[in-house]
Amino acid sequence: MNRYTIFILVVIMAACNSPARKAQPSNNEKHEKQPIQVIFDTDLGNDIDDVLALQMLLNYHKQGKINLLGISLSKANPFAIEYVDGYCNFNNIPDIPLGYVYDGVNPEDGSYLRQTLETSVDGQNILMPRRSIKDSIPKGYILMRELLSSQKDSSVIIVAVGPETNLERLLHSEPDQFSNLAGIELVKKKVKFLSVMGGLYGNEFDFPEWNIVQDLPAAQTVFEKWPTKIIASGWEVGNKLLYPHQSILNDFNNSSRHPLCVSYKLYGEMPYDRQTWDLTSVLYAVEPHKNYFRISSNGTITIDDEGHSKFVPAKEGMHRYLKVDESNIEYTLNALIQTVTGKREENQ
């Protein structure tokens, strides 16, 4: 065997015995793994679906799929501050920035805010808030200005699932210490799109939707003046996707200590399956590529003086709305359940 042949064999053997190199991710793969920047605007305390939606976002945050920048409350009840702070602490995600809608709508306690805060097991409260109305919680729209000003252009998704008071105030806001841009210009520069649960679309139903009419002037302003894309999830979407009570009973460890399960049982007489209105806006905002929903053509949504939402197709329109097919309900509902319970695989 000559020297050249020996050299070739050595090279081959070295190559076979060396550890395999991992394929380097493409630029697209690297981009996909970057967490989405999200601000959550919620009227938690009115309906229980806000709590389910919050749990989804906290699970996404834990998985690294999103960076939950902050939570602005659109329900004018101070117990909402303590509840959300305690809920984030329960999920081991403390100190998420909070904003509050001073002089907003819906000041009543509701059926689960105070009650869950007062629930204790073995002498210990299940929610342990560290912040309250006494801690100078910033105004919701001011918090949004602060968060938006520090983010890259066109990078933030706002998920809004209640009255649009904070959003209207954001649009009308003036330059401040956080940004020299007025509200509309700041939103246009920093927001990728607004995922909003509000309105009613299609021909199956026709009535003013609840979120819209709670602060009707705010809703009219937002749909008229919001300068980026709006993706609306109407009442009819969440109405077709019912969260099963069996999940509340069986899918959470120590459910008697879990504030979601406790609040769900306080909100209504069990067993009941609740509509997933707010959850649909969260799911689309974080995973629009999964085809959980169909989506309308471009158009314009307007809100009349009674609160009816009207969609007019327009090629250059900035608004679209979600649709769900009967054949897709199981697929979409399963994704919602697994995301709420935190049981989805990382690669899903």
TrEMBL record:
Assigned keywords, A-Z: Hydrolase, Signal
PANTHER family from the UniProt entry: INOSINE_URIDINE-PREFERRING NUCLEOSIDE HYDROLASE DOMAIN-CONTAINING PROTEIN (PTHR43264:SF1), PTHR43264
Gene source species: Mariniphaga sediminis
Statement: the UniProt record of this protein carries the keyword Signal: yes
Membrane-spanning segments: none
Signal peptide (residue range): 1-23
One GO MF term attached to the UniProt entry: hydrolase activity, hydrolyzing N-glycosyl compounds
Highest taxon listed in the record's lineage: Bacteria
One Pfam family here: IU_nuc_hydro
The name this protein goes by in its record: Nucleoside hydrolase
Domain Inosine/uridine-preferring nucleoside hydrolase: 38-293
PROSITE patterns given in the database record: PROKAR_LIPOPROTEIN (PS51257)
Keyword ATP-binding set for record: no
